[in-house]
Amino acid sequence: MIKEISEVDIEKLQKPNHAVKLNWLRAAVLGANDGIVSIAGLVIGVAAATESTSVIIASGIAGIIAGSISMAAGEYVSVSSQRDTEKALLEKEREELANHPEEEMQELAKIYQHKGLSKKTAEIVAKELTAHDPVKAHFDAELGIDPNNLTNPWHAAIASAASFLVGAIIPLITIIILPISLRTPVTFISVLLALAITGTISAKIGGANILKATTRVVAGGALAMIVTYSIGRFFNVKGL
Asked: Would 239 be classed as within a structural domain?
């Protein structure tokens, strides 16, 4: 029976080792995507209104700083709330283990039955894991939380701001190094290419349909740039 568990059923008990890393990578890609779209829309809109490179640069830098801070603050608040929830769940589970150990053992066995193990095998696994480390066994199976690796709001905030900054640099650098006549069309194309790349990466990470996911991202970015360009043309101030 022990050999059967170790060689066949153990795969049903393991969680993906790279789940946390994939979540961070997905967040980074989405942050970069936000940076690309936000700053592309901003600088193209400004460029449509004025030919002044200094105005475009100032607007772009201001947008990058504001966007990065906003992304960092939003991510910090969000992840802090998630961390507080995780701590509350862990404390509740500790109390239940201390006050109702037998009920918790049965609950753990049922969890492994739902994962595909037979009732007998599930009971053996639950008993052995509980005997080894009851707290860790229940935290992992019932909550999917590692108490030693809780989400870190500072890490999330820094990663979000950094990825936004990296994405935002693409449209800003592109539009300021090009001649006036090429600024808008080349920036537009470069941004769409960048969005196609981030859309593809995001789809692969999430296991989504690459064509559909990329099309949505590219279409959204194109729409944002068209709208801001139109607004810039409406407020045309070429003399600045």
From this structure: no
